[in-house]
Amino acid sequence: MPRLRDLPLWLVLCVPVVFAPVNPYDWRPQSGNLLVVSVAAGCLVLAGAVAVARAWPLAALVVVLLLGPWASSEALATVQLWPMNHSAKIGPLNGFTPAVVTLSFLAGMRMERARPAVWLYGVVVVVGGACAAVSTLGPAPSLEPNVWVSGLSGVLICSLLPWTAGRSVRHRRQGRLRERLMVEEQARLRERARIAQDVHDSLGHELALIALRAGAMEMAADLPVRHREAAAGLREAAGDATERLRRVIGMLRAQDEPATLLPHARAGGIADLVARARASGMTVTLEGDGAGGDPLGAAYRVVQEGLTNAAKHAPGAPVVVTLSRREGRMTVTVRNDAGPGAEAPRPGTGLVGLSERVRLAGGTFAARVEDGMFEISAGIPDEAPA
């Protein structure tokens, strides 16, 4: 018996088998107990085909092809095909026709490889075509013409066409699945890039401040030598940790994947960020007020990256942070002494990610060395573009 979830399908397919009218070409006896037995046997065979249709769709296809469609008194059309001497029925209709159409369609959808079914249909067409020609072309055909012609046309119309439709549905489903998996993979890559950028922005900044504070302790003349040595070790460890963090972020970030805009600015905003940098020993001047806040968090990241770069590449140099707002747009500038012989900044992970963050906020970003000063500037609108 079919599995329970396939039971409704089996019951539906059995209805035409049971109630199909008896005709001279039918496989069933005309009446009596043999008719009941033959119908019951047909339903049992159909039950087996439905039961194996999920695990072995090709086997179910073979079973329904053996059951029908073959010759019957009903057909889609009756035509005279030259050079045949007799009329032939095209696409016979009998009690098994719905089962043939349905299970052929399901086989097309469920078969992983199409080649076995193609070979099966090829054999049926070649053998059936040869038999149809031999049995119908002569003046005294050896078999009733409808046996081969209608059977062959029934296979093509009632089985091959539904199987082809099933393959088409399977291909479309696979295409949608591949597209969905691709979208999910891209989402995972974007999330990795976002995590990497956020780690760089937050943890990298904190490590730079630790190194700066340790450097200040190392240079303090009033500390014992052992404390200055410990501070030197702490500064070196913070520098090593920063370098390892950079390498890990390089592996975590997918190439050519932009960082998404997901601000995680501290509640105190830019003023708190500057105050914490000053507490670490940096000389930072904050100009302007930037009234209106930083709803997108991009301005906070610009200042954070500027202070991190200054602490890392120009320790001890004064830093000027300028904020201004005009016509719904905030301009942020971070400047510090670049030192003698400074070159144009190379696009590292921090600057690249920062540039992308500002771009996603609908703003503009620039990093340059001018008149011996390293400058990071960004223009950020109050609202991101739709």
From TrEMBL:
Keywords: ATP-binding, Kinase, Membrane, Nucleotide-binding, Phosphoprotein, Transferase, Transmembrane, Transmembrane helix, Two-component regulatory system. The keyword Kinase applies. The chain crosses the membrane at residues 34-53, 60-82, 88-106, 118-141, 147-166. The lineage of its organism: Bacteria, Bacillati, Actinomycetota, Actinomycetes, Streptosporangiales. It comes from Herbidospora galbida. This is histidine kinase. GO terms for cellular component: membrane. Its EC number is 2.7.13.3. The keyword Phosphoprotein applies. It catalyses: ATP + protein L-histidine = ADP + protein N-phospho-L-histidine. GO terms for molecular function: ATP binding; phosphorelay sensor kinase activity; protein dimerization activity. Residues 191-256 form the Signal transduction histidine kinase subgroup 3 dimerisation and phosphoacceptor domain.
